[in-house]
Amino acid sequence: MLREILVIDDNPDIRYLVCNILEEQNFKVRTAANYDQAVLEINKRLPDLAIVDIKLDKPDKDGIDLLKLIIKKNKDTPVIMISGHATVKVAVEAIRLGAYEFIEKPFSKEKIINYVNRGLESSFLKKEKNIIENKLFHSFELIGQSSDIIKVKKIIDKLSTSESRVLISGPTGSGKELVARKIHKNSSRAKETFVIINAALLKEKTYEKELFGEEYEDGNISFGALERANKGTLLIDEVSEIPYETQANVLRVLIDQKFKRVNGSKDISVNIRLISSTSKNLSQLVKDNEFREDLFHRLNVMPIELTSLSSRTEDIPLLIKYFKNKLSEINGVQEPDIDIKNDSLYTYHWPGNVRELRNLVERITILSSNESKQKINQLINDILNPSSKILDEKNILSQTFQAPLKEAREHFEKEYLTTQLKKHHGNISKTADFIGMERSALHRKLKSLGIKGIN
């Protein structure tokens, strides 16, 4: 399918030149010779990319107004602004409003082709990213009936009318990004951008460029996460990884709501909601002088703590049911018959937390959706109990056989009862019914074995 470009310029020579260049590259081209024609063409059908001259025939309307119209219809449509007499201020304003690029006249054939191809590629990547995000995040919900998850849901609801900064803490894979997206989606900024910057993945020398952007000697500008998130929400993932020196600059942005780009001289004002997340103990990092205390207090206005999956095993059945339904729909396959009473699901430590459980369900959904419950159970056991763990269990069993009868029996009873309690989500009555004991007798047995509770 041919990609369609809309060329808007009141100079017939420029229109003819640009059209020839684009048609030689097998693009479909539409043109508009003045402001009113441009509005008609934009309203008729949005192109895949637009090339817009800033100065047109109307004294009170120009290319900037057309840019606003296109962005309003679809903010992901790339718009290349061209001009032979625009000031730097106009160029910066065009980029700030959402233009993909700004080109000064006269321009070379190679430059226009390069910018068009890059703009279309950027648009394609954005669409792909949105599709993936819709599958992985927007369609997913925060699932669980444990007290921990209910508490988090209530906080998210309360934050819907607030602009407070949020600090989400929790182990890797516990759902910090999902919570941040839910907060954004429920807020008054929901229609604006949601930008993520993962501080753990950046190189030490690139933090300030990624956050604040950079100005180059040739006049080009690289926009940082703060500008891209303007009017929307910025999530700084693993905020603890930001270098100590850079933390002072982040603090200044939170205080002043403005900053300078790297190599820039002018203040850039922004209006963002900041959400931070961390898998580390920031309070301890403050005590160790590895994180600024003043920044910590600025970020930690509304704390949300996500607990590990192993500490809320009662949510596992709900999560499995939810994930297998969603993932089978996404992948176009039948829902797998997963036995939610499989002991391995509750005795496994889940170091990757909810993300690891989702990956397990997705793997089974894709590879074994038509298998029997027994075969799926075996697959789950094989995945969650690798050979090294089996060897450890054999060693434990061997040690048990070498112990006196009383000690071996106590060891078995403790392992057995712990597993059954986890399986029944810590419910004493259900566990007692399942194993055939009186509730009071089970209480006494748990006390004698030193089993205080199940997390």
Overview of this protein structure:
The structure is a single chain. With 455 residues, the protein is α/β, with parallel strands linked by helices. It has four domains: 122 residues, 3-Layer(aba) Sandwich (Rossmann fold), CATH 3.40.50; 169 residues, P-loop containing nucleotide triphosphate hydrolases (Rossmann fold); 76 residues, Helicase, Ruva Protein, domain 3; 61 residues, Arc Repressor Mutant, subunit A (Orthogonal Bundle), CATH 1.10.10. It is 52% helix and 13% strand. It contains 20 helices and 14 strands. Strand 8 and strand 9 form a beta hairpin. The longest helix has 30 residues. It is elongated, with a radius of gyration of 29 Å. The two termini are 56 Å apart. About 2% of the residues have low confidence.
Radius of gyration from the CA trace? Answer: 29 Å
Structural class by SSE content:
alpha/beta
Count of extended strands: 14
Largest sheet: 5 strands, parallel
CATH secondary-structure class of the largest domain? Alpha Beta
How many domains in all?
Answer: 4
Low-confidence stretches: 388-394
Which percent bin holds the helix content? 40-55%
CATH architecture of the largest domain: 3-Layer(aba) Sandwich
Which overall shape is indicated by the principal axes computed on the Cα atoms? elongated
Distance between the termini: 56 Å
Work out the helix count: 20
CATH superfamily of the largest domain: P-loop containing nucleotide triphosphate hydrolases
Spatial strand sequence of the major β-sheet? 2-1-3-4-5
The CATH topology of the largest domain corresponds to Rossmann fold
Mean pLDDT: 86
Strand content: 5-15%
